[in-house]
Design goal:
Keywords: Repeat, Signal. The chain is mainly beta.
């Protein structure tokens, strides 16, 4: 009996301590995570001490049903020792059914639970619609269905399950949130496609959320953990509206910076950073947010503007044009060249004004913004200061304001002077004098002014003066007609005036020319477009060019039908007309007369108010040499006689000889332009009736009448002349006698015959 009772007691004791029986289990919800419309969490189980084995179980949890527009559940990561597992939604509750393993042979075929929590499964709820509230998961322990958990134990040779009467069911619960927000949170989006975030180190961990276009509205949810990714859009998504929120950073308290990538150009991004305590998607408690905002830079253009050109340049304005690059917009900056260039700053917008005197904005140091707008390729600038050199830089950019990205590694640049102000000073001491038949010299007092230059314009006096145009540079040439034209005039000088004079050639003879002097400024710029001329003539004057007279005349006395080579006299080295009746005081001499000289003659330029018969006014006189072919040359024996005219006129030419009757041209000298004026008495004859002897009787050849051998009495060949020849008869040494009418060195009957034949002829000078 005692033995039987012992075995009974032993059996009861063994049953009470069956292998695996613990009656202790802790079920927790961990790793709550929300991403887009999915909400996931893990179910963990453990013991407070010892080991037990999980058998059949129904785990029922209620939710904040308003968080989902519709509710669906799925599971994953089921412990492999669980024989059957299902998840479903019943009356808005989450019901998880765990089925035992009927083929199990020992407790080891079931999930073993120890004091270290073991994940039983992962649960995913879908169709999240409220991003501001927690899931509020809670275990349901009453009603039906409700939470029931069984443990597996070994009873003898059999496996048995027993209900856990008082399982510990732990729903997520937030801890104490950090009291203060992160400080000095700053977003720098100055690099294309990314943001640099910085903040002060915090003791607590931090979570960063980014949103495109609007401020972060939802933020993290207590007790929920989030997966972060620095690439925007790859971390957990908190908001599923058109402007979504993504978790872009999760760091411990020592971190102070993060780089967020994957940002779109030209888009505004808002960032919120939260301190948090707790973790494991179960106890997180988030602080208030610190926020920062920035706009992602647009992509930088790759092709710079080029080909800057300036037009319509005035003292206060000019136009700028250029070839566009590939930027959406352009920033045009103008500065005085003495101001250092300052590049634009990415992410900064500028206001613009094309009035340089009233700037709206600058990139710094007087780099004033003219244009901050779509790329048009041209603009007009006003408000400039005359005579200043300006520099322009044109930067292509994309975006605007805080998204603006400027191409500064390559840009168009150029310099340009504004047109200089009109000068006010004048040339002094301007004089104009002819120096040759084709040349006039203009002289002046050297102005010695570094700021001014001068041009001299030559024109016919009958042409009106034309002022030079601002913005033009005029090429000068001292050959009249070869320099650049201004109106009807030509530029014959362009310089600083230091030369003191200029001689102009290629002029027509016997022509009056006027000379206008204009000051101008801007030569230091080496740009004709900025030159500015005085409107008024600074100095002027006029002069008439001298005139060469190419005259042909034959003397009857020595002419033999071919030429006058038969002359046989000794021509004096000095002109002989310094006596009555000529009384010419000229000093013409020639100490080495050419062999073909016939004699000295006296030339007179005459003017008339009406026709040759009235050409009685003698304007200029000079002695010249007559050659044996009838050509008259100057006293030097070779050059054409030149008259230093003081006034332009139509001139007649008269020729006097010491023993032939004087003649005057029947017409004015023929205008030779730049060449000598001409008159040929031998073919054209002379003024008056029988003013010359018709040598051939047919008007083909005319010669001056010989026999005027007594010039002191009158201008007619008469008895007085005959008497003088007769008185001097038989003079065989008449080397230069007036009575030698045929100029053969003898006074004989030939001379008397000449007087007789031409008796009663008188000179027909007007």
């Amino acid at each position: 009996m005692r033995l039987k009772n012992f075995y009974l007691a032993l059996t009861m004791l063994t049953t009470a301590f069956a292998f695996g029986q613990n009656n202790d289990i802790v079920v927790t919800i961990q790793n709550q995570n929300q991403d887009s419309t999915n909400f996931t969490f893990d179910i963990y189980a453990s013991t407070t001490s010892g080991t037990t084995y999980l058998g059949d179980a129904d785990i029922v949890m209620s939710t904040a049903a308003a968080k989902w527009s519709s509710l669906a559940v799925a599971h994953s990561n089921v412990d492999p020792k669980i024989g059957n597992f299902s998840s479903s939604i019943i009356s808005g509750d989450i019901v998880i059914n765990i089925g035992g393993n009927l083929s199990a042979t020992g407790v080891s075929d079931f999930p073993d639970l120890t004091t270290t929590p073991k994940r039983i499964a992962s649960i995913t709820l879908t169709d999240v619609s409220d991003f501001s509230a927690t899931a509020d998961l809670a275990f349901v322990t009453s009603g039906s269905p409700k939470t029931l958990i069984y443990e597996v134990y070994q009873s003898g040779s059999r496996l048995r399950q027993r209900k856990i009467n008082a399982p510990t069911l732990q729903a997520p619960a937030a801890g104490v949130a950090p009291a203060s927000a992160v400080t000095n949170f700053v977003a720098d989006l100055s690099t294309v496609g990314q943001a640099g975030l910085t903040w002060d180190a915090a003791t607590d961990s931090v979570l960063i959320i980014a949103r495109e276009g609007s401020a972060v509205a939802t933020g993290p949810i207590n007790t929920v953990g989030f997966n972060a990714n620095n690439a925007f859009g790859d971390g957990d998504q908190i908001n599923v509206t058109s402007s979504r929120e993504y978790v872009v950073g999760k760091y411990d308290g020592s971190a102070t910076s993060a780089t967020i990538t994957g940002l779109a150009s030209g888009t505004t991004y808002h960032f919120a950073i939260y301190k948090f305590s707790g973790g494991n998607g179960r106890t997180e408690a988030y602080s208030a947010a610190a926020t920062a905002t920035g706009v992602g830079l647009n992509a930088e253009p790759t092709i710079a503007a080029s080909g800057i050109d300036f037009n319509n340049i005035t003292p206060t304005a000019f136009d700028i044009s250029w070839t566009q690059g590939d930027g959406d917009s352009v920033l045009v900056v103008l500065r005085v060249v003495d101001s250092a260039q300052v590049l634009p700053t990415d992410g900064q917008g500028y206001t613009a004004s094309t009035d340089f005197s009233n700037p709206s904005d600058s990139t710094g140091n007087g780099n004033y913004v003219l244009v901050y707008a779509a790329n048009t390729g041209s603009l007009s600038v006003s408000g400039l200061t005359a005579g200043l050199e300006y520099a322009v830089e044109i930067y292509e950019f994309n975006g605007s304001g805080s998204s603006a990205n400027y191409l500064t590694s390559s840009f168009a640049s150029a310099t340009q002077y504004s047109q200089f102000g009109e000068p006010s000073t004048a040339f002094a001491g301007v004089t104009v004098n002819a120096v040759t038949a084709n040349g006039i010299q203009v002289t002046w007092t050297d102005p010695s002014e570094a700021d001014n230059q001068w041009i001299v314009v030559a024109r016919l006096s009958t042409d009106a003066a034309t002022a030079p145009g601002a913005g033009d540079d005029y090429a000068a040439d001292t050959a009249f007609g070869s320099g650049e034209a201004i109106g009807n005039g030509f530029v014959v000088y362009n310089g600083d005036g230091s030369e003191g004079s200029v001689t102009i050639g290629n002029l027509d003879q016997n022509e009056t020319y006027a000379f206008d002097v204009y000051a101008y400024t801007g030569s230091t710029a080496s740009d004709s477009a900025v030159l500015n001329y005085s409107d008024a003539v600074d100095g002027n004057g006029s002069a008439v060019t001298w005139m060469e007279a190419s005259v042909i005349v034959l003397l009857e006395g020595p002419y033999d039908g071919t030429d006058m080579g038969s002359v046989n006299i000794t021509v004096p080295s000095s002109q002989p007309y310094n006596q009555a009746p000529w009384n010419y005081a000229g000093t013409e001499t020639n100490g080495s007369l050419p062999a073909n000289v016939v004699d000295w003659v006296l030339l007179e330029l005459r003017t008339s108010a009406s026709g040759s018969e009235n050409a009685s006014t003698v304007a200029f006189t000079q002695a010249a040499l007559l050659l044996d072919d009838g050509t008259i040359v100057a006293a030097d024996g070779s050059s054409t006689p030149i008259f230093e005219l003081s006034s332009e006129d139509d001139y007649y030419i008269a020729v006097r000889h010491r023993n032939h009757l004087a003649v005057s041209s029947d017409t004015v000298l023929s205008d030779g332009g730049k060449s000598a004026f001409t008159y040929n008495f031998s073919t054209a004859g002379a003024n008056g009736t029988e003013g010359m002897y018709d040598y051939n009787g047919d008007g083909s050849l005319y010669v001056m009448y010989a026999g005027w051998v007594d010039p002191t009495t009158d201008a007619t060949i008469n008895a007085g002349d005959y008497s003088a020849v007769y008185t001097d008869r038989n003079n065989t040494s008449a080397t230069y006698d007036f009575t030698d009418a045929n100029m053969d060195g003898l006074v004989d009957s030939a001379d008397r015959a000449a007087v007789f034949n031409n008796r009663d002829y008188a000179e027909q000078l007007p």
